[in-house]
Amino acid sequence: MQAIGYAAAGPIDADDALIAFETARPTPGPRDLLVEVRGVSVNPVDTKVRAGIEPENGPRILGFDGAGVVAEAGAEVTWFRPGDQVFYAGDISRPGTNAEFHLVDERIVGRMPTSMDFADAAGMPLTCITAWELLFDTLGVAEGGGKGDTLLVIGGAGGVGSVLIQLAKRLTKLKVIATASRPDTVAWVETMGADHIVNHRKPLDGELSTLGIAPRYVACLTHTADHFDAVAELIKPRGRIAVIDDPPALEIKPLKKKALSVGWEYMFARPVFQTADMHVQHDLLNRVAAMLDDGSLLPTVYEHAGALTVDALTEAHAFQESGRAIGKTVFDGLGR
Predict the structure, then answer these.
(1) Domains recognised in the chain with CATH numbers
(2) Metal-binding among the record's keywords (predicted)?
């Protein structure tokens, strides 16, 4: 089968940063689905893996989000059968979705929204799982809860921020403040439903002071190291901070005086460690699909970049790394 990946870690402007190659069509394990991939998207994790992790045993296939049609099902699969349309975010410890066919455990797969095409559907799973787990697991907000409290989303126009704002507004009673710094990102965050927007290029404690609001919950989705001291100042005592990026070591001792909690969200933890509750990703993706179909959750795809090719994917990686990405960039599957 055809695939796109990388043979050596490095910058996206290096020669052959991404390559096309042929590889064997994989065979499903007991709980695996073999999916004919018809849509994929680009996430920050794609660029981080390509830039920093050397492949083992030949080129590594990138891509985590995927949507497609089940071609084969493993012997112990119970929730899907060949012909089903599915979407999912995969497992970072396995080969990715930038290929004609892809293996994925059924416990982290949802039924694809009926109102979306494959490419647009592929733009949703990773960010939806991350935002869902961040809100309800890491920050510990209860569905329907949060009345009288506020969530600050740092990086509101990115893929995760776009979904997080919506989930908080649809499924909790939290007030949402999101950060954005350009006219296009401000407009995007407004569309996602944020109650207030502040500029993360200014000191955030000052921005929040102007609003007269102290959040109990903070989602640090980007540039955590730059904002961490301000977050410690602006957050309420006994507040909770969730982090998804990879800052250098954070000094957390100053958080003691407010009894603050800090937690990391990493949506690959469940599939990588095969946790007993990894099926919750299957469940939440099915709920996300229903919300997309009934219009209570807006799609967050910003650009449909057409056919998946080495050149187009290279351009998408570069744009993702530029710090100017809004929402998600998606592609049709290889050969489509």
Answers:
(1) 2-124+273-332 (3.90.180.10), 128-264 (3.40.50.720)
(2) yes
Q: Cα dist. 42→111, 117, 197, 315 in Å? A: 20, 17, 26, 11
- Give the model confidence (pLDDT) of 271-293 as tens digits: 999 999 999 999 999 999 999 99
pTM of the model: 0.96
CA distance 174 to 196: 12
Establish how many alpha carbons lie within 13 A of residue 142's alpha carbon, considering only the half-sphere containing its beta carbon: 4
Q: Which parts of the chain are beta strand (E)? A: 2-6, 19-22, 32-42, 60-61, 66-73, 85-88, 101-105, 109-111, 150-154, 175-179, 196-198, 217-220, 240-243, 261-264, 301-304, 328-332
Angle of helix 159-171 versus helix 183-192 axis, rounded to 10: 30
Q: Give pLDDT, residue 2.
A: 96
CA distance 217 to 55: 38
Token reading at 170: 């649809």
